[in-house]
Design goal:
It comes from Variovorax dokdonensis. This is TlpA disulfide reductase family protein. InterPro entries: Redoxin, Thioredoxin-like_sf, Thioredoxin_domain, Thioredoxin_ResA/DsbE_sf. Keywords: Signal. The protein is of the alpha/beta class. The protein has a single domain, classed as Glutaredoxin. The chain is 40% helix and 23% strand. It has 5 helices and 8 strands. The protein has a 6-stranded mixed beta sheet. A two-stranded antiparallel ribbon has the order 2-3. Strand 2 and strand 3 form a beta hairpin.
Length: 166
Amino acid sequence: MKKHIAIAVTAAALLAAGVGVYLGSSTTSAPASTFVLLDGSKTSTEALKGKVTLVNFWATSCTTCVAEMPHIASTYEKYRSRGYDTLAVAMSYDPPAYVVNFTQSRQLPFKVAIDNTGVVAKSWGDVQLTPTSYLVNKRGEIVKTYVGQPDFDELHKLIEKLLAEA
């Protein structure tokens, strides 16, 4: 019985999160973060300003993450010349060698960071489910959160709208 209650509570929480994502919410500033990229360089939330950016938390062990990655890459390629960027943040439990291998073998065209301490995921709302993505506008505000694979047609429409904003 306790197991069924736990499953029901978990399902209700996920449903509530999904409904919140679907309905959207007011914009909030992206949390101040420093991202360590695979080449050892760093970037920050501040550096996202001026571009529309998808910040994607993922793991090589996540089948949905692996399945969505070609769509994320093609979205990046489609809009990057217009001021769109992507930052893929590998979760702390993902072995760095796996992340490097995945990034190189799939020839990911965007920046990839490793959150080896978990601090970045914690600051972005204690991300634990992958994939979780945040669409950030040119002002550095989160305008949409996706838990699970986004509807890419809808995502593209929103990116176009945000790119058109001053």
